[in-house]
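Side project, low priority. Logging it here so it doesn't get lost.
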Amino acid sequence: MSHFFTQDPTLEFYETHESKFLTPFQRKTLLKHLQSNLQPEYRRRIEIILMADVGKSQTQICEILGCSQEMARYWIGLAEAGLAHKWNERPIGRPKIVNAQYLDRLKELVSNSPRDYGYAFSHWTAQWLSKHLAGELGIEISDRHINRLLKQMGLSTKRKTTKPPEINPIPDAAITICDLKTTSEASLNWSFNLLESSNELIRNS
């Protein structure tokens, strides 16, 4: 369902709820624009901001407007940052060319944890990077293209594995000093016994 606020003839729903992020001037301006003949994309942006301002959750907003999580997250974040007046500054439509801004943002995202941007998981995938950037910058590219761009920048979404320390192998020669001593003593005892036997034969002859 779309046009959540415009379906209320008097907009009393919004007027009776306390504002969380917007200034009175911002709220008045957005409501005025919402009643004008806006393009659907612009109307949806305003509705996301207004819904967030009265306490609607991101999930609720997506269900009501049928928008993506990425789109809702972006405009909610803009409202929370006090930048709701920038609702019409981002052009409508998806540029097909990856620009320097896109590459810089991609590098920034992959260098940080997704949890820093409100996600529950701790490691990016190419798919989530693509979705996040599509919602934030309006440039939609494939997962493969994301991976190619990362490779060109020397980056990757793969987790770095720590190489286990090498264990020094046991030397093949297992002879110890004790072994050598034992062998020498045995040889000496054998020689001494042989000498004693020879002397005994001489005395008896």
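Brief comment: The chain is about 55% helix and 0% strand.
Revisit when time allows.
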